[in-house]
Structure formats: structure tokens, C-alpha cells
Amino acid sequence: MELNTQTDLVARSLRSVWHPCTQMQHHAAHDNTVPLIPVSHGRGAWLYDHEGRRYLDAISSWWVNLFGHANPRINAALKDQLDRLEHAMLAGFTHEPVVQLSEKLNALTGGVLGHCFYASDGASAVEIALKMSFHAWRNSGLADKQEFVCLKGSYHGETIGALAVTDVALFKDAYGPLLRATQTVISPDTRRAAEGESEQDVARRAAADVELLFQQRGDKIAAIIIEPLVQCATGMAMHDPLYLKLVRELCDRHQVHMILDEIAVGCGRTGTFFACEQAGIWPDFVCLSKGISGGYLPLSLVMTRDDIYQTFYSSDVTRGFLHSHSYTGNPLACRAALATLQIFEEDDVLAQNQLRAARLTAALAPLAEHEQVRHFRQRGMIWAFDAIDAAPDFSRRFFTAALQKELLMRPIGSTVYMMPPYILDDAEIDGLAAGTLAVFNQVMAGQ
Ligand SMILES: Cc1ncc(COP(=O)(O)O)c(C=O)c1O
Fold first, then answer.
1. DSSP 37
2. Same domain for 360 and 229
3. CATH number, domain with residue 326
4. How far apart are CA 40 and CA 58, in angstroms?
5. Which of 290, 293, 325 for mutating ligand 1's site (highest number of atoms within 8 Å of CB)?
6. Is 261 annotated as contributing to ligand binding?
7. How many percent of the chain have pLDDT more than 70?
8. What's the domain count of the chain?
9. Is residue 318 part of a domain?
10. Which of 61, 65, 155 has most ligand 1 atoms within 8 Å of CB, for mutation?
11. 416 pairs with which residues across the strands?
């Protein structure tokens, strides 16, 4: 059977592949509300199908791709690594890529988060941070600290533990009976500002909710988990850095760990390498994944403080963190991450992104001022706005219409967002803004 014709690939994929986060019937011929696009290859910010059509990857392939597809520098590093060591187990063994990566990440936190524990997907990193927090308290004689706190609208992944600290009904409700109860506090989402409230007022009000909970149950709570600055999956809900500073103080006062899930917002996405730098704080745990490997290979990790690490350090094996994954610290993934960090250093990426961000924000002015748009917002390399009175199928219709304009964009409900790779040139930035406006007008006119 031919492998490379477009229709053939779609039919075969629908017969044998169960696609993620998808109601498969939406791809069926009689219900074809969402097209399935076979990708033949990628180059830079573009993905190409088998019939020569191309799509600007405006969402970095689920927020992972930082420096484009088939990036020559990351490719070269991986080819070199392939001939040296593809994988070795990390228990009882170590290797240069994992050591170098841990050292570099440690240095990026000024040595505060000195120990890196590795896994593959984001959700695994969240599981690790939750387990580590509980176990660290247990090792410290505070075994009653077993509860976790998350924010309204939070998203931390799909595995059972990560889903328990997630607050997106669409993903969570079906599995409710399987999940541990979690305490949920209000979100500092600036869109929730009451009349006359500033963004900082919202941050203070949300922190007061945390304080109340900590006063009531602090002795039972192990950790609060937060997506710093932008709660992405709930619809790019942004908040003021003050919130993180206030919660950090509360965590210190009430002996509660602060876990920052920087899986989506880390690696420069919000303008600083770690989002929490904008609040001038470090948490007790940082989870990283997605962009850390440049979007090449599944790699996630949890960084933690030395005092937490020390609670596990003992002659007693059961006080150790006996967690593992077969591919923990995979050398290829670590090497891709090292190549990614090298690009940050060599290309002064954070400074260059400020120029890109200013240009795209200016180009998006017609959308920011559009009468059917509210809450236009931007932080670093994330842009979002909400469509007023969007139809229930807005997101699917936008996705399909965007493809016709060579754009890969998947709105979340009525929120349109952009999270492009950090390589767009001026023409691509202008094309993205003009295309988004055209698609938005088309979809809003047709509903
Ligand atoms: C903030 C956040 N945490 C965790 C995850 C889960 O990561 P993964 O899909 O790699 O398991 C995601 C994925 O979108 C995320 O945005």
C-alpha cells in the first residue's frame, strides 16, 4: 500500500491511530467537522502536508517547539549524540548530557534549585513534584501533610495524580471517581477584576483566598501547585506577578511547598527564562517540559531545593525517592535540551523575542480594538483574546478556516491565542496577524 498519498494516510490513520484529546467521530467522513492533516515534513515555523500545502505553526505544536521544525543546530547535536549513546538507564549510571543539563539548569536558578529529577512528559513531572512534596514532609515527621491545593481553571496534565490537581471540567469530570479530592482556590485571572479593581488588586484578593485556606488547613496541606503568570489550558488566563510573591510568603509562613508548573510557561515563553523570575521568587519545586527539548523529544524534569533533597538523603533506603521511568534522563532528549539552551545563549533569544513581541502586538492592533473582541492580552510570546458571543462550535470552525489561510491555530473555547516559535521573521509576524484577523472576521460573520 502506498504510504504517501494524503487521503490514503488519513484513512489509514483513522483506522489504526487513536488520536489524543479528540472525539474520533469528528474526523469520520459523515461528521467531518475537523479535518485530519497528514504532515509530510516541517521546516522553520512551517508544517507541510503531502500535497504541498503549508501551515504556519502558530501554536508551536502544542506549545513545545521553540526554534522551528528541523532546526539545523538541534538536528546536528542529535545526530552526534546518536552515534555516541542513544540511551542508558539512569539508576546506577550517568552520562555527560544529563550532568551538563542539570548543571546548566541549576545555574539558571542561581543555584537555588540544585537537583534535577527527570521524566518524559509534563504530567509525569507533576506526579513527581506531588509525590516528592508529600514524601519530603513525611521524611520530616509531618506525615499529616497530604493535601494539595490547585487554582480554579488549573491544568497540570492527564494522569490520575495530575488530573486531581487540574480544574478543567471537560477533562476531569469523567474520571471524578478515580481522583483524590483537592482544595481549589480562586484564580488571580485578571479578567475577573471587579469594577475599579486593578490587576494587583485581583492578585491580592486571590492570595487572600489562599491565606484563608492555609489558616484553616495549613497543617494538612503539603503543597500548592500553580501555573505561574499564565494558566494556559483554561484559555490563557493571565495574572500579575504579585500573586506569586504573595503566595510564596504564605507558603513560608504556613509551611506549605510551592510547586510551580512551568511546563508551558517556562523556557522563555513569558519573557524571562522561568516565569517566576518576574515575581522575584523561587518556588520549592519547578516542573519543566515541552520547550526544554526544543520540542524534539519527550523530556520533563523537576528541580528542587537542597533542603528538600536533604530530607531524602539517608542510610535508610525507604527515605529515598524510589520513583523512576525507563527513559529517565534519556541522553538524546538531554542533548536536544542542551542544544536548545545553547541557542538561548548564542542568539540572545530573550532580547530578540522582545522585538518580535512588540511587532506582533502592534500588528494585532485591529484585533485588540475589534468590537467583537474583549480581553486582548499578551505576556512574552503569548497572545490571546476572547470572542464576544462566540457560537459553541467557534473553536472548530476557526481551526478549519485558519488552515485555509495557511495557519495552524486551535482556539480554546472562545479564546483565540498565539504561541509561536521564537523564530518568526517580520513577514511571518505580519502574515500571522493579518491571517488571524481575516479568519476571525470570516468565522464571526458566518455564525
Ligand atoms: C501547565 C501544564 N502542565 C502539565 C501539562 C501536561 O504535559 P504533558 O501533556 O506533556 O503530559 C501541560 C500540557 O499542556 C501543561 O500545559
1. -
2. no
3. 3.40.640.10
4. 18
5. 290
6. yes
7. 99
8. 2
9. yes
10. 155
11. 385
Residue 2 pLDDT grade (very low, low, confident, very high; cuts 50, 70, 90): very low
Amino acid (one-letter) located at 258: M
Q: For residues 104 and 278, give the distance between their C-alpha atoms in angstroms, rounded to a whole number.
A: 20
Q: How far is the CA of 446 from the centre of ligand 1 (A)?
A: 33
pLDDT tens for residues 302-352?
Answer: 999 999 999 999 999 999 999 999 999 999 999 999 999 999 999 999 999
Of 312, 347, 382, the residue at which a domain comes to its end is 347
DSSP 353-399: HHHHHHHHHHHTHHHHT-TTEEEEEEETTEEEEEETT--TTHHHHHH
Ligand 1, atom nearest to 123 Cα = 11
Distance CA 298, CA 121 (A): 6
Q: How is the chain split among helix, strand and coil, in percent rounded to 5? A: 45, 15, 40
Ligand 1: distance of its center to the CA of 125 in Å? 9
Q: For position 369, which CATH number holds?
A: 3.90.1150.10
* Residues 267 and 314 both lie in one domain: yes
Domain range for residue 263? 74-347
Cβ 233 under 6 angstroms from ligand 1 = yes
- pLDDT confidence of residue 152: 98
227 lines ligand 1 (CB under 6 A): yes
| Residue ID of nearest Cα to ligand 1 atom 2 | 156
Phi, psi (deg, nearest 5) at residue 32? -65, 65
Asked if residue 244 has its Cβ within 6 Å of ligand 1, the reply is no
Determine contact, residues 69/238, Cβ cutoff 8 Å: no
Which distant-in-sequence residues (6+ apart) come within 8 Å of 300 by Cβ?
118, 119, 120, 121, 122, 124, 125, 263, 287, 288, 289, 292
Could you give the CA distance from residue 227 to residue 323 in angstroms, rounded to a whole number?
24
The reply, when asked if residue 324 is annotated as ligand binding, is yes
pLDDT of residue 33: 76
In the predicted structure, residue 132 carries a pLDDT above the cut 60:
yes
269-287 tens-digit pLDDT: 999 999 999 999 999 999 9
Same structural domain, 184 and 219: yes
The answer on whether 154 is annotated among ligand-binding residues is no
50 with 85, same domain?
A: no
172 C-alpha vs ligand 1 centroid, how far in Å?
A: 14
Cβ(147)–Cβ(222) below 8 Å: yes
